[in-house]
């Protein structure tokens, strides 16, 4: 997951630099439900905003994934019976922390990748005479949300549950 996280972070930097080199002076910054821009801004505003959002997300997920292996056990949020099982031995605790860290890198990777797609679309459509978001973007956003919800259900019902055989 760490490699996927850094690959999506690298993709963000590439798309941001392409925006730096190619965005026009006037850029659509916000879009209504129909996909048409309802707020415009400067090239600088677009680059600063996307840089802060994308860079902030990369930093946030990296810091959390690095901190989690050293986080106090009290802050690890699992159902009580499962938490007792995971914290019963050093090996289990190490595995729990590794999984949590990997999961943060994975969620970070797909979240940053979503930002990459949004930034790339902005760069491309900013050159159109009448920019509008493509309809397929809603499939990507829906897929992202469905994936996060699905992962959350899987993680809480399978990944972090006490093994049936007691381990």
How do the strands of the widest beta sheet line up side by side? Answer: 1-2
Radius of gyration: 20 Å
| DSSP strand count | 2
The class by helix and strand makeup works out as mainly alpha
**Large-scale geometry:** elongated
H-E string = HEEHHHH
Average pLDDT rating? 93
Q: Main β-sheet, in a few words? A: 2 strands, antiparallel
Strand content: 5-15%
Helical run tally:
5
Distance between the termini: 25 Å
Secondary structure: helix percent = 55-70%
What ranges have pLDDT less than 50 throughout 5 or more consecutive residues? none
Q: Number of folding domains? A: 1
Keywords: Membrane, Transmembrane, Transmembrane helix
Domain DUF1648: 13-49
Protein name: DUF1648 domain-containing protein
Transmembrane segments: 46-65, 104-124, 136-154
How would you describe this structure to a colleague?
- InterPro entries: DUF1648.
- Keywords: Membrane, Transmembrane, Transmembrane helix.
- The protein has 167 residues and is mostly helical.
- It is built from 5 helices and 2 strands; from the N terminus they run αββαααα.
- The chain has one domain (2-159).
- Helices cover 67% and strands 7% of the residues.
- It has a two-stranded antiparallel sheet.
- A hairpin with a 5-residue loop joins β1 and β2 (37-42).
- The model has no long low-confidence stretch (mean pLDDT 93).
């Amino acid at each position: 997951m760490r490699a996927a996280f850094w690959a999506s972070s690298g993709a963000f930097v590439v798309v941001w630099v392409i925006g730096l080199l190619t965005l026009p002076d006037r850029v659509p910054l916000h879009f209504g439900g129909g996909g048409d821009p309802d707020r415009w801004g400067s090239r600088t505003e677009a680059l600063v905003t996307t840089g802060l959002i994308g860079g902030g997300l990369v930093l946030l997920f990296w810091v959390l994934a690095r901190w989690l292996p050293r986080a106090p056990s009290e802050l690890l949020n699992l159902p009580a019976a499962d938490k007792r099982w995971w914290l019963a031995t050093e090996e289990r605790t190490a595995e729990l922390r590794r999984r949590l860290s990997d999961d943060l890198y994975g969620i970070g990777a797909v979240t940053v990748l979503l930002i990459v797609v949004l930034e790339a679309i902005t760069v491309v459509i900013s050159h159109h005479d009448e920019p509008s978001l493509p309809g397929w973007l809603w499939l990507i956003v829906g897929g992202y949300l469905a994936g996060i919800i699905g992962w959350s259900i899987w993680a809480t019902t399978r990944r972090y549950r006490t093994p049936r055989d007691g381990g």
